[in-house]
Amino acid sequence: MNQEKTIRELKASGYKSVPVKEEVRRNLIRSLQKGEKLFSGIIGYEKTVIPSLINAILGKHDILLLGLRGQAKSRLVRALPQLLDEYIPVIKDCEINDNPFQPVCKHCIDLVKDHGDDVEIEWLRRDNRFSEKLATPDVTIADLIGDIDPIKAATQRLHYAHEGAIHYGIVPRTNRGIFAINELPDLQPRIQVGLFNIMEEKDIQIRGFNIRIPIDVMMVFTANPEDYTNRGNLITPLKDRIDSQIITHYPKTLSDALAITQQEAWIQRNGQKAVIPSYLAEIIEQIGFEARGSEFVDQKSGVSARLTISAMENLISNVERRALRTGEHEIFPRISDLHATLPAITGKIELVMEGELEGSVKVGKALIGKAVRTIFQKYFPDPLQRTERSHNATDERSEYQPVIHWFEAGNKIEITDDMPFKEYRSELEKVKGLHELALKYMPSAKDNAYELATAMEFILDALHQSSRIAKDEMETTTVYKDLVNSIFQRHEETAFEEEQ
Prior knowledge:
- A five-stranded parallel beta sheet has the order 4-7-10-1-11, covered by helices on one side. The protein has a three-stranded antiparallel beta sheet with strand order 14-16-15, sandwiched between helices. A two-stranded antiparallel ribbon has the order 2-3.
- The protein is an alpha/beta fold.
- It is about 40% helix and about 15% strand.
- The chain starts with 6 loop residues before the first helix and ends with a helix.
- The radius of gyration is 31 Å and the shape is elongated.
- The chain folds into three domains: about 5-245, P-loop containing nucleotide triphosphate hydrolases (Rossmann fold), CATH 3.40.50.300; about 250-380, Helicase, Ruva Protein, domain 3 (Orthogonal Bundle); about 395-500.
């Protein structure tokens, strides 16, 4: 790329400089006219958040993205620099990226005054025109706006009222670019007040000097509604100066949630991609939906999309660990691997008082169980649904009855975490009628032994979640057995403990 090197060459080229918001607007219009995809990697916002964001940019607004954790607010903010020009000219070595045609800092004004059009310029890439700051209580005005640098003043023999003694903060250093503050309410109120001039008058003032430096910057903020009361407060005057407040949200459909996890989760391990049955991936996503509707989970805190991403990675890691131990090369998950998702669940949900009484592990297992039952009904008949020929869900003609009878006869199966596939399948094949039932509703598993075995266990776990058979989980071992005998056994164990 042949780039001009002086102001004279820049003028001769016919280059026209525009404010950053006009630049972003112009590039957005060009992308819309060409039908280009905007904000790649953002899923589920096509008809909600993105249209509102486009409107705000077209209106040359400063923007606040408001939403709970894990709603892609930061990702949206970091996508905005793609709407900047690839390069813009700035006066060489200027701390605040001065426009060669309209310098604002004293150094550059003096430079142009002394050397005119012979002043050297350089070209700033769009990636260097974006700055981001996480708001924390210890952020100061000096961090954002600037302060007097006594060392600089002493070295250059300047008095403290001289503009050359200023050390610029991150905002002026983002002049002619996009500046973002994440978690805005965490910023102390007195620091938020310091942003007023930037938002309204578009200039900065440092240490009360009679120096006003016009700043050309697009401001973007993110905030969590919970922060307004729990950790901080967004002061009303600043909120009033933010032109557009855009509400973000969690995935509204299972397909959007699946696409997000597929995009973000680390699924391919050692060059080998794990094969995840559609229903197992759906169970992982349904856990998130169940958590967002659970009475035990604090809904004001939200349930991040990172929960399902981490859960999927934990599931695959458990499968990978088993494959490494058994020497098998096929990475195929089982329903019993769902227990490995618990660390991703318990670490990412905030519980209300009732949930705390139950315990995070118990709540996590309940969420997994509800997800299994919900997704099971997409592929199989509901084990509790009454048949057309009978009003009794336990009628002998129920498709699940042969399986249930097998357990009622005193039989049980035991599945361990490190069980090789042949043993795993052999254990499931013991259950009368289970193989045929899995093939009936999942015929695609006919030619895949791994998928068929997992489908068989899927039925057993769904029957347990529907209270038709019992399941005991002991560390890395899962035992499926008769429900009634299990109840009596527990009753006897409790009575014995009380006698002791």
